[in-house]
Amino acid sequence: MKLLLGSRNPGKLREICEILREVPSLELLTWEEVAFSAVEETADSFLENAQLKARRICEETGLPVLAEDSGLEVEALGGRPGVRSARFAHEGATDEENIRLLLRMLEGADDRDRRARFRAVAVVRFPDGKELVGEGELRGRIAREPRGHSGFGYDPVFIPEGFDRTLAELGPAIKNEISHRRRALEQIKRQLLELLEKG
Amino acid sequence: MKLLLGSRNPGKLREICEILREVPSLELLTWEEVAFSAVEETADSFLENAQLKARRICEETGLPVLAEDSGLEVEALGGRPGVRSARFAHEGATDEENIRLLLRMLEGADDRDRRARFRAVAVVRFPDGKELVGEGELRGRIAREPRGHSGFGYDPVFIPEGFDRTLAELGPAIKNEISHRRRALEQIKRQLLELLEKG
């Protein structure tokens, strides 16, 4: 079965491929093989944004599409940056700009107020209207300053529960084991395997 | 279209009916009209539990089924009681027992450590395998002691953001406006309307 990945973010694409390549008879396609238009993430929940992207791109290409939306929720900020994680500082912001703004907003905040979680929702949409949904989260806290160079987004300032290093210090092997995206994709993987078994 | 509500909780059924009765040509059925077996909520996420229930009951009855799972996540407790909200004190616990345990665990905790959110995930499963998913959350904090008599579950100790009274004091009209379940069901409603329009 062909599955088009509805993301252009190279960091996300790498993580998705590493997890879903374990599904036999699944042929992963990216925007490099099948072009699709950009979809604006206008909704205010991860689920609705993922559904929006998967539905639009599926309609446009006629292929089964996997889309995900994910982000960071800081409890002391009332769940921000949330769905605006990638454009927290401003539209088109770099990871560095977003991180700088986040650290400034948490200046003086103690560990309790630095509690945060990553959330991911993944949706697979099929041309016949069928949908699969998976979700995952990773709890942790926001570090005082960026550390480490692996990963992307807020990884340099996110310390997962049970660790004392940031995701960017822990590296891809550990991140892919514990990440919110992994959990969401594992749920998708199980549902895909079920579907493929049924033929 | 017939839609079987996959819950036996009278509080939830009332809330669901109040929201979904606005959908024209939707005939809501409950366990009193169509019997189904109890489904154990064995998964560790709201989404997976809601999917589990909707799929099993749909398989058993051959009808489109709406199931939801919801609960309370307290940040300082690492997200507990979470999927165990209804059986936090023990299997088959009353609302009072669960609330008593929660207040004891938060004894001495200040407002920051009393931050919490209600989350709800609703799933509609159709006999052809199609699924709709909606989710919602309501942020707030845990009160020092129970107040008010409306609602159910943790409503007497949950103070929504922007209010200074508990959900149980605010009453059903306000709760149904702002609740996590309402948001999840609104998303389901929109998708049902789309489906029904297409015929």
Which structural class fits the helix and strand makeup of chain A?
alpha/beta
| Strand runs of chain A, count | 6
Principal-axis shape of chain A equals globular
Helix content of chain A: 25-40%
Q: What's the architecture of chain A in CATH terms?
A: Alpha-Beta Complex
CATH class of chain A: Alpha Beta
| Low-confidence residue ranges of chain A | none
Largest interface: A-B, 24 and 24 residues
Q: What does the oligomeric state look like here?
A: homodimer
Major sheet summary line of chain A: 6 strands, mixed
Task: Kindly identify the CATH topology of chain A.
Answer: Maf protein
Average pLDDT of chain A = 94
Structural domain count of chain A: 1
Tell me the Rg of chain A in angstroms: 17 Å
Number of helices of chain A: 6
Roughly how many Å apart are the termini of chain A? 10 Å
Strand content of chain A: 15-25%
Strand line-up of the largest beta sheet of chain A:
2-1-3-4-5-6
Can you write the helix and strand succession of chain A as a string? EHEHEHEEEHHH
Task: Write a structural description.
- The structure is a homodimer of 199-residue chains.
- Chain A is an alpha/beta fold.
- Helix content of chain A is 34%, strand content 22%.
- Chain A has one domain: Maf protein, CATH 3.90.950.
- The first copy, chain A, has 6 helices and 6 strands.
- In chain A, a hairpin with a 5-residue loop joins strand 4 and strand 5.
- In chain A, helix 1 crosses helix 6 (180-198).
- The first copy, chain A, starts with a strand and ends with a helix.
- At the A-B interface, helix 2 and strand 5 of A face helix 2 and strand 5 of B.
